[in-house]
Amino acid sequence: MAKPTQSPNESILEGLARYPQATAAELAEAIGIGKSTATRYLAVLEVEGKAVRTPGGWEDGKRFSDRWSLVPEGSESAGTPTVTEAGAKGPSKSAPAAPAGAPAATPPTADGRLQKGVLAIMVLDHLAAHPKDSFGPSALAKVLDRSGGAISNALAAMAVRGDVVLVSDKPRRYRISSPK
């Protein structure tokens, strides 16, 4: 299998230009990447102010997929994204972007919670920065200053997706997966 010639971010940006208002699943299929990868990179692009999420909303108890598009050039939101609350039903609530000096990938909502998917990105970023080391949920919780339970849940989900590898069951320790 040949290696891709461009990064997932570049592929997603090109895909958004070709398929505006696509869902993460539609975009992933169109550009030939996994849905979880597309979702992860779309969240990063949203935080960077390069992509905009239109919440899918709810109707008769059914959740519709969010739609994604590029931020129009010259738009006021480019470079200063707003963060929507994850899981908000109905109209989305928004809060200003993270204060100056805060890491760009970790903007909290008005109540201090992280946007959906951002904790997983934080964990993956830390594991990628230390590819030969393994970490447990408690150690990551201390480093990232986040809930150990939430990190444990994120690690379990990432292990199922293949983003991380469980290297020890007792105590549980994880390492980032090898690039494929």
Describe the structure.
The protein has about 180 residues and is of the alpha+beta class. It folds into two domains: about 1-80, Winged helix-like DNA-binding domain superfamily/Winged helix DNA-binding domain (Arc Repressor Mutant, subunit A, Orthogonal Bundle); about 115-180, Winged helix-like DNA-binding domain superfamily/Winged helix DNA-binding domain (Arc Repressor Mutant, subunit A). It has helices at about 10-20, 25-30, 35-45, 120-130, 135-145, 150-160, and strands at about 50-55, 60, 60-65, 65-70, 85, 95, 165-170, 170-175. A two-stranded antiparallel ribbon has the order 1-4. Strands 2-3 form a two-stranded antiparallel ribbon. Helix 2 (about 25-30) packs across helix 3 (about 35-45).
Note the main attributes of this structure:
alpha+beta; Arc Repressor Mutant, subunit A; 8 strands; 37% helix; 15% strand; globular
Query: Level of helix content?
Result: 25-40%
The first-level CATH class of the largest domain is given as: Mainly Alpha
Number of helices: 6
CATH H-level superfamily of the largest domain: Winged helix-like DNA-binding domain superfamily/Winged helix DNA-binding domain
What is the count of β-strands? 8
CATH architecture of the largest domain: Orthogonal Bundle
Mean pLDDT: 75
Topology as a string of helices (H) and strands (E): HHHEEEEEEHHHEE
Q: What structural category do the secondary elements indicate? A: alpha+beta
Compute the CA-based radius of gyration.
Answer: 17 Å
- Give the biggest sheet: 2 strands, antiparallel
Morphology call: globular
Low-confidence stretches: 76-106
How many individual domains?
A: 2
